[in-house]
Write a structure and sequence with these properties.
The chain contains four helices and 36 strands. The chain is mainly β and 502 residues long.
Length: 502
């Protein structure tokens, strides 16, 4: 019976993931909103009717389970598939910044769609209040202080859709990065984690979007990088395709080329095992002038298998091997310096190729990494190979839309609810006394003489203790006298024990 149930569940998950994979099959990009549609037969491009806006860097969109466009955004407005404003979808940020920016966003990752059940979609934008805009104009005190969400019901208006909640604040009076916002499926396969970077330092704000509520999970603060500050900073945050890794970077002032990478727990939204990597110093501006070198990073994306990280500087494309910590220089300028448009945001397409947009200029092409899982030159970089030249003089390609991995499915979270499986996995992890109000001793058997990390979490997934644990030190004692009473979970590697604090 259990085997039959497992097969049915696996089949359901496979069908669900296949359907979700098509939610990113059509892109709206560039001046006028040109279509790029991915099908099993290839890639098809066509012009569109979004003549009043630009879909570059701040753009986002989402399709239905058949791969047909439902909603798209230029960062400040939401449109339907026929290039019309969705009911209630115009001017979804405060008006002063909207007017100043001509009604569309040129900031990477400044909008995103998160799908829920029953035709409900969240639409999220970081932005600036009118009062902050006035302060920016008067005193040059310029920063984003708002994070807004909107709720779209696509069953309203007879299926035409409607924004049923507009411009609801997630954060107010904040200091937010203009760029760097990305989402990842919760491990339940239905809800969404949203991570947003602060303007100053490395502070990551976290929210959980569920089917009927939004939960503020506070922030995680890391000592570095600082990235400097500045108003017009470019940057990008991304998750690996399986959601297990998170990376973010920005071209700070001064530019340092620092990239932050951490493991991500899809069950509880926790970043851990963080590290910083530094891009190598490379030529910029005129490539013939070797005295002009800089460390800069403006965009990034993981390879499909999560083993490689691609990092874009304005004039260089780099590949970083996460296993052996080595860099490979994939490409520099693909035209003369005078005609080159800088590399910009990058996203994986539905075909598992990496598409790289441009910053500035009127490019009619995107560059493509055809085999992004392959280390070195075998990744097969093709400059300006996604082409929209045939669509006319105004067919600017812009950047890929900001989209999370809509196809990411569910995973089993710890602690495992099955006592049969749990008992077998917990044989080498012991906690005593349990319950306790003072100290607990942890005995953990590490068979191959390596070191591990011991972590203690609340029932809501907040980590309250972490420490390395050596194979030479067992039992390991933890002071729990300062913790509130309740249920906690102790994890060492993949093993988990419930701990009760009295």
């Amino acid at each position: 019976m259990k085997t039959i149930l497992l097969i049915l569940v696996s089949s359901f998950i496979s069908i669900s993931i296949y359907a979700q994979n098509k939610l990113g099959n059509e892109w709206i990009t560039g001046g006028g909103g040109n279509r790029v549609k991915f099908t099993q037969s290839g890639i098809f491009t066509s012009d569109n009717k979004f003549i009043l806006s630009y879909f570059t860097k701040g753009n986002s969109n989402i399709c239905d389970t058949n791969g047909n466009l439902i909603l798209c955004s230029d960062g400040y407005n939401v449109y339907d598939s026929n290039a019309n404003y969705l009911d209630g979808g115009d001017t979804l940020i405060p008006k002063d910044l909207f007017v100043d920016q001509d009604g569309w966003s040129a900031l990477s990752q400044s909008s995103i769609f998160l799908p829920m059940d029953s035709g409900i979609y969240y639409f999220i934008t970081p932005t600036m209040s009118d009062s902050q805009y006035a302060d920016c104009q008067a005193n040059s005190n310029c920063h984003f202080d708002l994070l807004l969400y909107n709720i779209i019901d696509m069953k309203a208006n007879g299926g035409a859709g409607k924004v049923v909640k507009r411009m609801q604040p997630l954060m107010e009076h904040a200091f937010l990065s203009k760029t760097r916002m990305m989402a990842c499926r919760h491990a339940n396969g239905k809800d969404w984690w949203l991570l947003k970077q602060s303007e100053f330092g490395n502070v990551v704000f976290k929210f959980l979007f569920t089917q009927d509520s939004i939960y503020d999970y506070g922030s995680q603060v890391f000592n570095s990088p600082s990235w400097g500050s500045g108003w017009d900073l470019r940057g990008q945050s991304m998750f690996s395709q399986d959601g297990s890794k998170y990376a973010t970077t920005v071209d700070g002032i001064p530019a340092t080329g620092e990239v932050f990478i951490a493991d991500f727990d899809r069950c509880y939204g926790i970043l851990s095992n963080e590290k910083i990597i530094y891009t190598p110093e490379l030529n910029y501006h005129n490539p013939n002038d070797t005295t002009q070198k800089q460390k800069t990073s403006v965009g990034l994306a993981f390879s499909p298998n999560g083993k490689l990280l691609y990092v874009m500087s304005p004039h260089n494309l780099l590949q970083y091997d996460l296993d052996d910590n080595t860099w490979f220089h994939v490409a520099g300028l693909d035209t003369s310096y005078q005609k080159f448009q800088d590399y910009s945001s990058s996203y994986l397409g539905p075909d598992n190729k990496l598409y790289i947009g441009n910053f500035g200029g009127t490019s009619k092409q995107m560059s493509v990494v055809n085999n992004p899982d392959v280390k070195g030159a075998g990744c097969n970089f093709c400059p300006r190979c996604l082409r929209l030249d045939s669509l006319g003089a105004n067919a600017y390609v812009g950047t890929p839309p900001c989209m999370p991995n809509y196809g990411l499915g569910a995973q089993v979270c710890w602690p495992l609810e099955s006592s049969e499986i749990g008992d077998k996995r917990l044989e080498t992890l012991e906690v005593y006394p349990n319950p306790s109000s003072t100290y607990i001793d942890v005995r953990y058997e590490i068979r191959d003489n390596r070191n591990a990390t011991i972590e203690l979490f609340t029932a809501l997934g907040q980590r309250v203790y972490t420490s390395p644990i050596s194979h030479l030190k067992s039992p390991f004692s933890i002071d729990v006298s300062n913790l509130s009473t309740g249920i906690y979970y102790l994890r060492v590697e993949n093993l988990v024990k419930k701990v009760i604090i009295e």
